[in-house]
Automatic annotation (TrEMBL):
InterPro entries: Cyt_P450, Cyt_P450_sf. Keywords: Heme, Iron, Metal-binding, Monooxygenase, Oxidoreductase. This is Cytochrome P450 26A1-like. Residues 224-259 are annotated as: Disordered. It holds the Pfam family p450. GO terms for biological process: sterol metabolic process. Belongs to the cytochrome P450 family. One of its GO terms (molecular function) is iron ion binding. PANTHER family: CYTOCHROME P450 26, P450, PUTATIVE (EUROFUNG)-RELATED.
Length: 259
């Protein structure tokens, strides 16, 4: 289980692949450890994982590390459960259906063309950072209605956010959690500084769904089972993310439905 309080977090963060391989060799496919401030049971293998994923909310319940809950907010969609999670996820999924995605194409094409012209003028570029900037530009323009391409601070804040989303839950200067919470403060004033462009652009983007979502929450029938089943990612479990990042954990369910 490692050291008191920090457990084996340092080994896990510094060399995650070696950490998993060493523990698997030493303890097998199911073992206990202590990561990111939480006692943890590591489960490996299709047969073992299937038991967990097919009995979610019975044997285990979905939960994120405490640092991630702090960063994303306790009321975020990833922390909600049951009917609330189901309703939120269905509403958000509508922003990424074909009918919505097709409206983003003109803006995306224009952005890509502008970037390609810039790359051609430069002659030689570093592919990864340029593509990352392109993806950042498309996301900010299409989903937020803002142009952050000239704001390197916001782009660096996003990189900080991604790098420290799963970190040790200690908010002190220099820690990953401190860097991440500091990075969250930058996009808000940057977004507020572009109200004219945002008000003009946002009605054409995916985020037309929030008013409809709020209206639906007032209706007695809310989101139906048929609507839930129509979302491909929800056909088996409403609480299953599309992928399981390394920092996600499964906790014993508190519902009392398991023996």
């Amino acid at each position: 289980m490692g050291w008191p309080i920090i457990g084996e977090s340092l080994n896990f963060i510094s060399k995650p692949t070696a950490f998993y391989n060493d523990r698997r060799t030493k303890y097998g496919r199911v073992y206990k450890t202590h990561l990111l401030g939480q006692p943890t049971i590591r489960v490996i293998g299709a047969e073992n994982v299937q038991k967990i994923l097919t009995h979610e909310d019975e044997l285990v319940t979905h939960r994120w590390p405490s640092s991630t809950r702090t960063i994303m907010g306790e009321n975020g969609v990833i922390h909600s459960g049951g009917a609330e999670h189901n309703s939120r996820r269905i509403a958000i999924a509508k922003a990424f259906q074909h009918s919505a995605l097709s409206t983003y194409v003109p803006e995306m094409q224009e952005t890509v063309h502008n970037f390609i012209r810039t790359w051609c003028d430069k002659g030689r570029i570093l592919g990864y950072p340029e593509c990352r900037t392109l993806a950042f530009s498309i996301t900010s323009k299409v989903l937020l209605g803002c142009d952050f391409t000239q704001s390197k601070d916001v782009e660096e804040a996003l990189a900080n956010f991604e790098d420290n989303l799963f970190s040790f839950p200690v908010n002190i200067p220099g820690s990953g959690l401190h860097k991440c919470t500091g990075a969250l403060a930058l996009p808000v004033p940057a977004r507020q500084s572009q109200p004219d462009r945002a008000s003009k652009h946002c009605p054409r983007t995916a985020f037309r769904w929030p008013p409809n979502y709020r209206q639906r929450r007032l209706l007695p029938d809310d989101a139906s089972w048929q609507e839930n089943r129509s979302c491909r990612q929800n056909r088996r479990r409403t609480l299953r993310p599309s992928s399981l990042p390394r920092g996600q954990f499964q906790y014993p369910a508190e519902s009392g439905r398991h023996k």
